[in-house]
Amino acid sequence: MLTPPGLLLHPKHPDMITSGFTNTHRLFLQAAISRRLMTQAAALNVYSQICNVTEEQFDQDQFQDFITQLNEGLNNVELEFRQAQDEISGEAVVALTNTNGQKIAQVATGYSPTELEYFKHLLDAIIMADDEAFCISSTAALHEAGKLKNKENKALAIPKREAENLLDRFVADKWFIRSAAGAYSLSMRSLLELQTYLKETYGDQVQECTLCMEIITKGQRCEVAACSSRLHHHCASQYFKNMSNPVCPTCHSAWPGRVLIGLPDKTSAPSMIRRRRRENDVAGDREGEDGNARGEAEDDDEDEDAR
Ligand SMILES: [Zn+2]
Ligand SMILES: [Zn+2]
Question: What total of structural domains would you count in the chain?
Fold first, then answer.
């Protein structure tokens, strides 16, 4: 009997998670727990290898049913496999997500309260970045570490070296992506696992793709400023596939696909951050105006962005 070690999601009720699961389910779950996010192709590969071990028949066409069965079994422990298309590559991905997504601490486990506070500041800065860039430079990310405060409004600054290590950890844990130019943006894991939190915390600042209705942080937007259309690159190519003159799905004006959301990998991230919420932060105090306060301090070391 194959009982995977380390599957201790519910130590008091171990049967809650395993009832109804075959060894194939259990082993796949175990693999997913350590990886959290896989491309669909990688997940299929894992599935096929596990079928080999458990001597179950591997059938690619059964994979969706297999995921559905897993989700039914995981329902009562607030875990769920979610599927989406990667914003950059357009590839299908599978993520094991915590469905209790209202509180960051319940989702991003394994971090101290101060580390989580830093995580939230980074989310803030990324979501609030100017011009829907949805990313921040490494300089701006480190700068955020100096702004932390606890509930009593006491400074909690994280030293630079520690902040660098933490950023590495957030990337290794697949919460953020770091581009070749050092820009931090939201990963598919964050988008899938924090969607409830992001929508509740940032409201309209979080944009949805007009076609797939999923959150969008990398893609294209309508050239008509007043139009709300935003499209993932993969959604746009699919939608415009048979159109010789692409037009906006909402306002029907021409759609050359030139205005981008999120920055392409090779450009450096913006060094300025606009904050429209959480104005009690340092930026708000300093500027003390209409919520368009710009983080002037980031300007000093702009050159570092390109490294
Ligand atoms: Zn889309
Ligand atoms: Zn439009």
Answer: 2
Q: Which of 98, 123, 142 is where one domain is finished?
A: 98
For ligand 2, the distance from its centroid to the CA atom of residue 132, given in whole angstroms, is 16
Same domain, 49 and 76: yes
Which of the ligands is closest to the CA of residue 237? Answer: 1
Confidence of residue 101 (pLDDT cuts 50, 70, 90): low
Question: What's the pLDDT at 17?
Answer: 57
Tens digit of each residue's pLDDT (9 = 90 or more) over 189-223: 999 999 889 999 999 899 999 999 999 999 999 99
**Rounded distance from Cα 284 to ligand 2 centre (Å):** 33
**How many angstroms does the Cα of residue 296 sit away from the middle of ligand 2?**
33
The yes-or-no verdict on residue 269 having pLDDT over 70 is no
Domain of 188, CATH number, reads 1.10.10.10
Does 298 reside within a domain?
yes
Cα 31 to ligand 1 centre (Å): 28
Both 141 and 286 in one domain: the answer is yes
As to burial, measured by CB atoms within 10 angstroms (0-12 exposed, 13-18 middle, 19+ buried), residue 296 is exposed
CA of 86 to the centre of ligand 2 (A): 23
Nearest ligand, measured from the Cα of 252: 2
From ligand 1's centre to the CA of 83, what distance in Å? 13
CB under 8 Å, gap of 24 or more: what pairs does 240-245 form?
A: none
Show the domain range for 83.
Answer: 14-98
Give CA–CA dist 197/191, Å, rounded.
10
Tens digits of residue pLDDT in 139-185: 999 999 988 887 777 888 888 999 999 999 999 999 999 998 899 99
239 token code pair = 């939608």
Q: How far is CA 163 from the centre of its chain?
A: 20
